[in-house]
Design brief:
Elements lengths: L10 H19 L12 H5 L1 H5 L5 H9 L3 H5 L12 H5 L6 H14 L5 H13 L7 H9 L10 H10 L1
Helix pairs in contact: 1-7, 8-10
The structure holds iron/sulfur cluster (SF4) (2 copies).
Protein backbone atom coordinates (compact mmCIF):
# COMPACT_ATOMS: atom_id res chain seq x y z
CA UNK A 1 0.00 0.00 0.00
CA UNK A 2 1.33 3.42 -0.97
CA UNK A 3 2.22 5.74 1.85
CA UNK A 4 -0.31 8.55 2.08
CA UNK A 5 1.38 11.91 1.60
CA UNK A 6 0.50 14.68 3.95
CA UNK A 7 0.12 17.88 1.93
CA UNK A 8 -1.04 20.02 4.80
CA UNK A 9 1.07 21.67 7.49
CA UNK A 10 1.94 19.47 10.42
CA UNK A 11 -0.07 19.87 13.62
CA UNK A 12 2.97 21.31 15.33
CA UNK A 13 3.36 24.00 12.64
CA UNK A 14 -0.32 24.97 12.77
CA UNK A 15 -0.22 25.02 16.54
CA UNK A 16 2.72 27.46 16.65
CA UNK A 17 1.12 29.82 14.10
CA UNK A 18 -2.26 29.75 15.80
CA UNK A 19 -0.90 30.05 19.28
CA UNK A 20 1.36 32.99 18.49
CA UNK A 21 -1.03 35.30 16.67
CA UNK A 22 -4.18 34.33 18.59
CA UNK A 23 -2.28 34.73 21.85
CA UNK A 24 -1.02 38.19 20.85
CA UNK A 25 -4.57 39.22 19.99
CA UNK A 26 -5.91 37.87 23.27
CA UNK A 27 -3.22 39.79 25.16
CA UNK A 28 -4.11 43.02 23.36
CA UNK A 29 -7.82 42.25 23.66
CA UNK A 30 -7.60 41.53 27.37
CA UNK A 31 -9.68 38.35 27.49
CA UNK A 32 -9.72 34.81 26.19
CA UNK A 33 -13.37 34.59 25.21
CA UNK A 34 -12.45 34.78 21.53
CA UNK A 35 -11.58 31.07 21.70
CA UNK A 36 -15.25 30.32 22.45
CA UNK A 37 -16.36 31.40 18.95
CA UNK A 38 -18.21 28.53 17.31
CA UNK A 39 -18.67 30.37 14.02
CA UNK A 40 -22.45 30.63 14.17
CA UNK A 41 -22.32 33.72 11.96
CA UNK A 42 -24.70 35.81 14.09
CA UNK A 43 -22.18 38.68 14.20
CA UNK A 44 -22.01 38.81 10.40
CA UNK A 45 -25.78 38.42 10.01
CA UNK A 46 -26.52 41.48 12.14
CA UNK A 47 -23.60 43.62 10.91
CA UNK A 48 -24.75 46.70 8.94
CA UNK A 49 -21.41 46.94 7.14
CA UNK A 50 -21.58 43.29 6.05
CA UNK A 51 -25.05 44.00 4.64
CA UNK A 52 -23.61 46.49 2.14
CA UNK A 53 -20.16 44.93 1.68
CA UNK A 54 -19.99 41.14 1.86
CA UNK A 55 -16.19 41.34 1.90
CA UNK A 56 -16.37 42.53 5.49
CA UNK A 57 -17.36 39.88 8.02
CA UNK A 58 -16.58 39.91 11.75
CA UNK A 59 -17.01 36.13 11.81
CA UNK A 60 -14.37 35.77 9.10
CA UNK A 61 -11.96 38.10 10.91
CA UNK A 62 -12.21 36.05 14.11
CA UNK A 63 -11.83 32.82 12.18
CA UNK A 64 -8.69 34.13 10.46
CA UNK A 65 -7.23 35.17 13.81
CA UNK A 66 -7.91 31.72 15.22
CA UNK A 67 -6.17 30.22 12.19
CA UNK A 68 -3.11 32.36 12.91
CA UNK A 69 -3.36 34.40 9.69
CA UNK A 70 -1.54 37.38 11.14
CA UNK A 71 -0.34 39.16 7.98
CA UNK A 72 -3.61 38.59 6.16
CA UNK A 73 -5.58 40.13 9.04
CA UNK A 74 -3.27 42.97 10.09
CA UNK A 75 -2.48 44.11 6.55
CA UNK A 76 -6.09 43.93 5.44
CA UNK A 77 -7.90 47.21 4.74
CA UNK A 78 -11.18 45.41 5.51
CA UNK A 79 -10.67 45.57 9.29
CA UNK A 80 -11.00 49.38 9.06
CA UNK A 81 -14.52 49.16 7.64
CA UNK A 82 -16.12 48.31 10.99
CA UNK A 83 -18.27 51.22 12.14
CA UNK A 84 -17.95 50.18 15.83
CA UNK A 85 -21.73 50.13 16.20
CA UNK A 86 -21.46 47.25 18.73
CA UNK A 87 -24.45 45.33 17.28
CA UNK A 88 -22.38 42.15 16.93
CA UNK A 89 -21.05 42.44 20.45
CA UNK A 90 -24.52 42.76 21.89
CA UNK A 91 -25.88 39.73 20.06
CA UNK A 92 -23.01 37.20 20.10
CA UNK A 93 -24.43 34.07 21.83
CA UNK A 94 -21.00 33.32 23.26
CA UNK A 95 -20.67 36.75 24.85
CA UNK A 96 -17.58 37.55 22.79
CA UNK A 97 -16.73 41.24 22.72
CA UNK A 98 -16.51 41.23 18.94
CA UNK A 99 -16.24 45.00 18.47
CA UNK A 100 -13.58 45.35 21.17
CA UNK A 101 -11.73 42.51 19.52
CA UNK A 102 -11.74 44.29 16.16
CA UNK A 103 -10.52 47.47 17.86
CA UNK A 104 -7.67 45.48 19.46
CA UNK A 105 -6.76 44.08 16.04
CA UNK A 106 -6.77 47.60 14.57
CA UNK A 107 -4.46 48.76 17.35
CA UNK A 108 -2.06 45.97 16.45
CA UNK A 109 -2.27 46.90 12.76
CA UNK A 110 -1.64 50.58 13.59
CA UNK A 111 1.39 49.69 15.67
CA UNK A 112 2.92 47.76 12.80
CA UNK A 113 2.29 50.75 10.50
CA UNK A 114 -0.46 49.10 8.47
CA UNK A 115 -3.42 51.46 8.15
CA UNK A 116 -5.21 53.57 5.53
CA UNK A 117 -3.98 57.17 5.00
CA UNK A 118 -7.25 58.57 6.38
CA UNK A 119 -6.66 56.89 9.74
CA UNK A 120 -3.23 58.53 10.06
CA UNK A 121 -4.77 61.91 9.24
CA UNK A 122 -7.40 61.45 11.93
CA UNK A 123 -4.80 60.34 14.48
CA UNK A 124 -2.66 63.41 13.69
CA UNK A 125 -5.66 65.72 14.06
CA UNK A 126 -6.59 64.30 17.45
CA UNK A 127 -2.96 64.47 18.61
CA UNK A 128 -2.70 68.13 17.56
CA UNK A 129 -6.14 69.51 18.44
CA UNK A 130 -7.76 66.91 20.67
CA UNK A 131 -10.66 66.65 18.25
CA UNK A 132 -11.33 65.24 14.81
CA UNK A 133 -12.87 68.34 13.32
CA UNK A 134 -11.37 71.71 14.03
CA UNK A 135 -13.87 74.41 14.86
CA UNK A 136 -13.41 77.93 13.57
CA UNK A 137 -15.12 81.23 14.27
CA UNK A 138 -17.78 80.48 11.68
CA UNK A 139 -18.80 77.29 13.54
CA UNK A 140 -18.92 79.15 16.84
CA UNK A 141 -21.15 81.83 15.31
CA UNK A 142 -23.50 79.16 14.00
CA UNK A 143 -23.70 77.68 17.49
CA UNK A 144 -24.37 81.10 18.93
CA UNK A 145 -27.23 81.62 16.48
CA UNK A 146 -28.69 78.29 17.56
CA UNK A 147 -28.44 79.39 21.22
CA UNK A 148 -25.72 76.84 21.91
CA UNK A 149 -22.76 77.63 24.18
CA UNK A 150 -19.29 77.94 22.59
CA UNK A 151 -17.12 74.83 22.55
CA UNK A 152 -13.35 74.57 22.85
CA UNK A 153 -11.59 74.51 19.49
CA UNK A 154 -8.72 72.64 21.07
CA UNK A 155 -9.28 69.97 23.72
CA UNK A 156 -6.18 70.10 25.89
CA UNK A 157 -7.14 67.05 27.98
CA UNK A 158 -7.30 64.84 24.89
CA UNK A 159 -4.00 66.20 23.54
CA UNK A 160 -2.36 65.56 26.92
CA UNK A 161 -3.84 62.08 27.10
CA UNK A 162 -2.30 61.19 23.74
CA UNK A 163 1.03 62.75 24.69
CA UNK A 164 1.12 60.58 27.80
CA UNK A 165 0.54 57.48 25.68
CA UNK A 166 3.43 58.20 23.32
S1 LIG B 1 -21.66 35.67 16.88
FE1 LIG B 1 -20.04 35.15 18.32
S2 LIG B 1 -19.88 32.92 18.30
FE2 LIG B 1 -21.05 33.53 16.49
S3 LIG B 1 -19.50 33.70 14.87
FE3 LIG B 1 -19.72 35.72 15.74
S4 LIG B 1 -18.15 35.83 17.34
FE4 LIG B 1 -18.41 33.68 16.82
S1 LIG C 1 -19.33 46.72 15.48
FE1 LIG C 1 -18.40 46.49 13.45
S2 LIG C 1 -18.40 44.29 13.06
FE2 LIG C 1 -19.83 44.67 14.73
S3 LIG C 1 -21.85 44.88 13.79
FE3 LIG C 1 -21.01 46.95 13.98
S4 LIG C 1 -19.93 47.33 12.06
FE4 LIG C 1 -20.29 45.12 12.16
Amino acid sequence: MMEEKNHIMSDAHVDIKVRDFARQVVEEFGEERMYACFECGQCAACCPVHRVNAEFSPRKIIHMVLLGMMDEVLDSRVIWLCSTCYTCQETCPQGIKVTDLIIAIRNMAYERGSFPDGIKMQADLISAEGRLYSLDEFDQKKRQKANLPPVLSRVEEAVKLLEDRK
